[in-house]
UniProtKB/TrEMBL annotation:
Originating species: Nitratireductor basaltis
GO MF annotations, alphabetized: oxidoreductase activity
InterPro entries: DenD, Epimerase_deHydtase, NAD(P)-bd_dom_sf
One Pfam family matching this protein: Epimerase
Boundaries of every NAD-dependent epimerase/dehydratase domain copy: 3-229
Keyword line: Carbohydrate metabolism, NADP
Protein name (Swiss-Prot/TrEMBL): NAD-dependent epimerase/dehydratase
Length: 330
């Protein structure tokens, strides 16, 4: 089995690559090769039984994308995207990467012919939904994104469904919650503060909170995100029918509840490093985001969520300690 990961240098892509390498198989079939592609070369693991390759380029370049699928990978994970805040500011860049790049990928797969039909896992976003919202959004709620990023992901969902209907790909689109706690440095995502208010205080650094503590959001851990991807790559897509895109399970939680969880896990002193500094641009974006979901359709076909936010924080601490970025507690 050959696997292509587009967006392999990102946090989720790196964790997915490691899990695939550790397990060495997917759906009972031995993995023979993993190719990681991104705008910069990903750091790939080593394994005696798997051939690893890393390359860098621009997914908005059609020739580059055609080369990626020339050897007909069996499973393709499409994680690459310009994140929400950057897509809102860099309008042309957002559409080039998030829309054109996705279509180039689908067209490159279609051009292979010869009954080539790989499993394509596409990471969409809850940003495809726009206000006004019901108390809980289910999979029958219409897509009316209120950001360029959300519009680009909604277009990707439609393309994935149509190319699957035509038999060019066997697609699964997973609308990810906001992934938190993200390790490393902040990115340009408008949602970045959801990780920052946990990650920075745990590292002894001040964190800026740009929205009020009563903001409610839908979140999941990095480990849950990798679990979603793995399940999407191996599930029986006959269960999905023509509706190839699903909202992933998550936790509906307020910023205030996140901070209370941080206090329980790491103490008041750590939580006191959070400083409220309103940012009107981020407030406007976040105000248009959904807050709660009924993800029963995804749960019914086997996707699993985190238990609680305290567990997410503890898992982040354990990962950071293992990586040597935090001193071990106690």
């Amino acid at each position: 089995m050959k696997i292509l990961i587009i967006g392999a240098a990102g946090m989720v892509g790196a964790k997915l690559t490691k899990r695939l390498a550790d397990e060495g198989q997917l759906n009972g079939e031995a993995i023979t090769a993993i190719h990681g592609f991104d705008v910069v070369e990903a750091s790939m693991p080593s394994s005696g039984s798997i051939s690893f390759a890393a390359s860098a380029g621009d997914i908005a370049d059609q020739a580059t994308v055609e080369k990626l699928v020339a050897d007909k990978p069996d499973v393709i994970f499409h994680l690459a995207a310009i994140v929400s805040g950057e897509a809102e500011v860099e309008f042309d860049k957002g559409y080039a990467i998030n829309m054109d790049g996705t279509r180039y990928l689908l067209e490159a797969i279609r051009a292979q012919g010869d009954d080539y039909c790989p499993r394509l896992v596409f990471t969409s976003s809850i940003a495809v939904f726009g206000a006004p919202f019901p108390d809980k959004i289910d999979d029958d709620f219409f897509l009316t994104p209120l950001t360029s990023y959300g519009a680009q992901k909604a277009i990707g969902e439609l393309l994935l469904a149509d190319y699957s209907r035509k038999g060019f790909v066997d697609g699964v689109g997973i609308r990810l919650p906001t992934i938190t706690v993200r390790p490393g440095k902040p990115n340009k995502a408008a949602s970045g503060f959801f990780s920052g208010i946990i990650r920075e205080p745990l590292a002894g650094q001040e964190a800026i909170l740009p929205v009020s503590t009563d903001v409610r959001h839908w979140v999941a851990s990095p480990a849950a995100a990798v679990g979603f991807l793995m399940h999407a790559a191996t599930m029986d897509t006959a269960m999905l029918g023509a509706r190839r895109n699903l909202t992933m399970p998550g936790l509906s939680i307020t910023v205030g509840e996140m901070i209370e969880a941080l206090k329980r896990v790491a103490g008041e002193k750590t939580a006191s490093l959070i400083r409220h500094e309103p940012d009107e641009a981020i407030i406007r974006i976040v105000d248009g985001w959904p807050r709660n979901f009924d993800a029963s359709r995804a749960e019914e076909v086997g996707f699993k969520a985190d238990a609680d936010f305290d567990s997410i924080i503890r898992a982040h601490i354990a990962d950071e300690e293992q990586a040597g970025r935090l001193a071990k507690a106690g």
